[in-house]
Design brief:
By secondary structure, the protein is of the alpha/beta class. It has 10 helices and 7 strands. The protein has one domain: Rossmann fold. It is globular. The structure holds adenosine-5'-diphosphate (2 copies) and zinc ion (ZN).
């Protein structure tokens, strides 16, 4: 199973990619997590990417595509027989690059699952998001609060707010999404891969809808 999750910032891509990766035993590839890993380890790529991330802008396509190509080529993807991409592609050129990467490996996407959530709800989700800096688990101050305030349920680390989840940067990210990422909806619709799911319902229901939508494509 090779899937792409499409949706605005805060649509639930990370939450759902985690669930889908467990469901199908495939690899969860999050470009946001990869960039944050590089940033936290002070690599050249991380230092460069962070300048864009803190502004709410996209990291240049070329850097992002190279990172994804390397990641898709790692052995766990071959062993587990698939992946769910979370946060990539985010521009039409990235979508074209992904097609080329997969074609060179004689592979193709099974489905692009578009998680639709209205913009005012995206905003509320982003500013309330809290994340675990240690294990990447994510929470929300009202929709998914941890058992002990500000503490990760899984690993006990103190939760933080991402710098780019502050209100001003959130506005920029929502605009960048409209301008640069939303054209991918038509891009994938045209090739018959797009399946739209209502993301404005409890996470477990979104997961069920996504599994059903992906299954439908495979049977088509
Ligand atoms: P993305 O990866 O698309 O930015 P996340 O999965 O990080 O989205 O979710 C954004 C925020 O919204 C997080 O705080 C998360 O806990 C919360 N969230 C995710 N899915 C739902 C949902 N179905 N209903 C309410 N809140 C959600
Ligand atoms: P969100 O959870 O809001 O969808 P991510 O964690 O996926 O955000 O991404 C955080 C930031 O990392 C983005 O705002 C952007 O700067 C950078 N980034 C992630 N994926 C990409 C991508 N495919 N292309 C360019 N930049 C990206
Ligand atoms: Zn944790």
């Amino acid at each position: 199973m090779r899937l792409v999750l499409l949706g605005g910032p805060g649509a639930g891509k990370g939450t759902q990619a985690t669930a889908l990766a467990q469901h199908w035993h495939i690899v969860h590839i999050s470009t946001g997590d990869l960039f944050r890993y590089h940033r936290d380890h002070g690599t050249e790529l991380g230092v460069l990417a962070n300048q864009y991330m803190t502004q709410g802008q996209l990291v240049p396509d070329e850097l992002t595509e190279k990172m994804v190509e390397d990641r898709i080529g790692q052995s766990d993807v071959a062993v587990q027989g698939g992946f769910v991409l979370d946060g990539f592609p985010r521009t039409v050129p990235q979508g074209q690059a992904l097609s080329a990467i997969l074609a060179s490996q004689h592979q193709h996407l099974d489905a692009v699952l578009y998680i639709f959530v209205p913009e005012e709800i995206l905003e509320e989700r982003l500013v309330g998001r809290r994340v675990c800096p240690k294990c990447q688990a994510n929470y929300h101050v009202t929709f998914h609060s941890p058992r002990v305030a500000d503490t990760c349920d899984t690993c006990g680390a103190a939760l933080i707010q991402r710098e780019d989840d502050r209100p001003l940067t959130v506005q920029t990210r929502l605009r960048v999404y409209q301008e640069q990422t939303s054209p991918l909806i038509a891009f994938y619709e045209k090739v018959g891969l797009l399946r739209t799911v209502d993301g404005n319902q409890p996470p477990e229901r979104v997961t069920r809808a996504l599994v059903a939508a992906a299954g439908k494509v495979a049977d088509d």
